[in-house]
Target: DNA-directed RNA polymerase
Amino acid sequence: EVLADGPSMEQGELALGQNPLIAFMTWQGYNFEDAIVLNERLVREDVYTSIHIEEYDSEARDTKLGPEEMTREIPNTGEDQLKDLDADGIIRVGAEVHDGDILVGKVTPKGVTELSAEERLLHAIFGEKAREVRDTSLRVPHGGGGVVQNVRIYTPENGDELAPGVNMMVRVYIAQKRKIQVGDKMAGR
Model:
């Protein structure tokens, strides 16, 4: 018969964490000091697999050379990198992303002084102004891949408060499934 329940208990059962059967013993020095030896079955059956959600922000601002623009039309970018972007250059929910993939396509105007030597030569030869923008897209950082869970778009037109000079902000949430591995911390309280 249960005498008392706590905030994380119901009928004597803990509602949080995992409760594996453990044994304490020395094992050839592998569990020296604070080390723990785990059974391979715990990893295989995802007993200690966790889901981490990271958020990434991209802002379109007003610059001296003109406003930044969120778009799917990014210079020097192949169709394979744009396949999961919508018409506004924003990643679709449910897309699986990896290191370096584009989350939000964004271009920033660049001045004539920022043009490369090749661009200045083409400009001098043809006398036309190519679209003078540079790619400032939000990309997945190293080790940050996963599945896009949610995308939120904030604009002043929708009544959202943004920092001065910001015309639009896109926040992307990515969930990453991580299995327990060497170096992960465990608590035994």
In short: The chain has three helices and twelve strands. Residues 1-189 form a domain with the OB fold (Dihydrolipoamide Acetyltransferase, E2P) fold (CATH 2.40.50.150).
